[in-house]
Design brief:
The chain has 294 residues and is of the alpha+beta class. The chain has 6 helices and 16 strands. The strands form 3 sheets. Strands 14-4-11-12-13-10-15-16 form an 8-stranded mixed sheet. Strands 5, 6, 7, 8 and 9 form a 5-stranded antiparallel sheet that branches. The protein starts with a strand and ends in a 5-residue tail after the last strand.
Length: 294
C-alpha cells in the first residue's frame, strides 16, 4: 500500500476497521475491515511524522517519536486536546452524554463518559470486555457523576493498556465478569441523594459483553508486545483477536500484540504475512516489560 498512511483502528459498527489516508493528505481515504483468521502484514518506510490536529495536517510535518501513541508533535497535541471533551473547554455543549462503567479484567473497572450519539463505540475503542450504562444527561452532570464515583468509591477514570493486555487470555467466565460490574453499579446507584447530579437520569443495569466481538476466545498469552516501529520494520501474522486499539497476531513462534496507534504517521506497504516480526519484541511476563522496537 505504497503512498498510504494508517489513521488507526476504529469500531464503527461492531467490527474492527483500519483507516487509511494518502501520504500528504491528497485524495479520499479508504478503510480495511479486518476478519479474525485472516493474514496481515506490513512494513514501515521512511520517518514517522505528525498526524496533525482536528483534521488538519501538521504545518511543519514534524518527526514524532516511534513510541508515541498519539503520533502528534507538541503543538498539534495541544490544539487537538484544547477542543476535546476531556479538556472541559466546552461546558455549554448541548449534546446528551452517557456515563458508563467498564470492566477490563478482575479488579479493573473504570468510570467514563461518552456522547450518546456515539452509542458504544467508545467502549469498543477502549477494549472494554464488559460495560453497563449508568446514566445520561448534560455534559457537566455527566462530569460531576464521574468525579463523584472517583471520590466516593475510588473508581478510576483510566486503566493502563498494559494491564488490560496482560489479562485478556485468562479472563473469568461471562457470569463472573458481569457480577463484578453489577456490584459496582449497585454501589454507584446507592449514591443517589448523596451528591448525584439531579440532571443525570440513572439508566438500568445491563451488562454488555464484548468478549465474542473481540475474538478473545482465540487470544493466547502475548509473548511479545510491539512498542514502536522503525524504518524497514515488519509486523505480520494471523489476526486472532482485536480489542480497543490492539491487534493480537499469531506468528510461527508466538503471539504478538500490536497497538495500532503506533502505526499512525508511518508510510506502510504490504509485507508477507508469514514474515513474523523483524526485530526483538517486548517480553511480557513475570519479569515485567523489557523495552524494544520493531
Amino acid at each position: 500500500m505504497s503512498g498510504w498512511r494508517c489513521t488507526g483502528l476504529s469500531w464503527p459498527a461492531g467490527v474492527p476497521v483500519l483507516g487509511w489516508a494518502r501520504t500528504g493528505g491528497a485524495g479520499r481515504g479508504r478503510t480495511s475491515t479486518l476478519a479474525y483468521g485472516s493474514e496481515l502484514g506490513f512494513r514501515a518506510e521512511g520517518e514517522r511524522t505528525c498526524v496533525g490536529a482536528r483534521g488538519n495536517a501538521c504545518p511543519v510535518s514534524a518527526v514524532v517519536p516511534a513510541r508515541s501513541t498519539g503520533a502528534r508533535c507538541a503543538e498539534c497535541a495541544r490544539l487537538d486536546r484544547a477542543h476535546s471533551v476531556a479538556a472541559d473547554t466546552i461546558a455549554d455543549d448541548p449534546r446528551t452524554y452517557r456515563v458508563y462503567l467498564a470492566w477490563f479484567g478482575p479488579g479493573m473497572v473504570k468510570v467514563g463518559i461518552t456522547g450518546e450519539a456515539r452509542e458504544a463505540a467508545r467502549l469498543r475503542e477502549q477494549g472494554a470486555v464488559v460495560f453497563s450504562w449508568l446514566g445520561r444527561g448534560p455534559l457537566m452532570a455527566a462530569r460531576r457523576t464521574e468525579e463523584l464515583l472517583r471520590s466516593a468509591l475510588g473508581v478510576p477514570d483510566r486503566i493502563p493498556y498494559a494491564r488490560k493486555r496482560a489479562v485478556r487470555a485468562v479472563l473469568p467466565g461471562a457470569a463472573e465478569r458481569a457480577a463484578e460490574i453489577e456490584g459496582l453499579y449497585a454501589r454507584a446507584a446507592a449514591l443517589e441523594g448523596a451528591g448525584w447530579p439531579e440532571a443525570l437520569e440513572r439508566l438500568p443495569f445491563e451488562a454488555v459483553d464484548h468478549a465474542g466481538l473481540f475474538g478473545l476466545a482465540g487470544c493466547g498469552t502475548a509473548g511479545r508486545v510491539v512498542t514502536g516501529l522503525v524504518d524497514g520494520g515488519v509486523v505480520a501474522g494471523r489476526l486472532v483477536a482485536a480489542a480497543g486499539p490492539d491487534l493480537h497476531l499469531e506468528t510461527a513462534d508466538e503471539d504478538v500484540v500490536l497497538d495500532t496507534r503506533l502505526m499512525t504517521g508511518w508510510d506502510l506497504v504490504a509485507a508477507d504475512a508469514r514474515a513474523g516480526v523483524s526485530a526483538p519484541a517486548v517480553a511480557v511476563g513475570g519479569g515485567g516489560v523489557q523495552d524494544g522496537l520493531f
